[in-house]
Amino acid sequence: QARLVESGGGLVQAGGSLRLSCAASGLTFRLYGMGWFRQGPGKEREFVASISYSGASTNYADSVKGRFTISRDNAKNTVYLQMNSLKPEDTAVYYCGRYNTPGFMAGASMTGNFGSWGQGTQVTVSS
Fold it and tell me: Has residue 92 got a pLDDT over 90?
């Protein structure tokens, strides 16, 4: 059974940076696309970024383009989210998810296409 564990969250001032990690186990990691999502207070979970199983293709929400970078290390079964130029509106619990089926990702920004959610890591950006 797939297990995802996020880490790297914290409190940072606006303009600062954080790097989130998501360690995967219980799955053949290199076969699955992965995604980062976030859920702010009183909001629904929303797409942040996703990456194909090979790492060759990435997708970003418009709100984070140019500031966040998703990457993966298939040898370490880990996906990362580098977050730069953070804003108070980035405050949320960040979750990583595994695309539901191996191989090609269609609908790579749709929450319903991902599962095996981790417990999340809190990111708080102060103004």
Answer: yes
What whole-number percentage of the chain has pLDDT above 70? 100
- The three-point CA angle 83-88-90 to 5° equals 45
Q: What do you get for the CA distance between the two ends of the chain, in Å? A: 40
Cα–Cα distance for residue pair 18/86, rounded to 1 Å: 8
- Residue 69, judged by CB atoms within 10 A of its CB (0-12, 13-18, 19+), counts as middle
Q: Which residue matches tokens 């298939």?
A: 74
DSSP string, 23-57: EEESS-GGGS-EEEEEE-TTS--EEEEEE-SSSS-
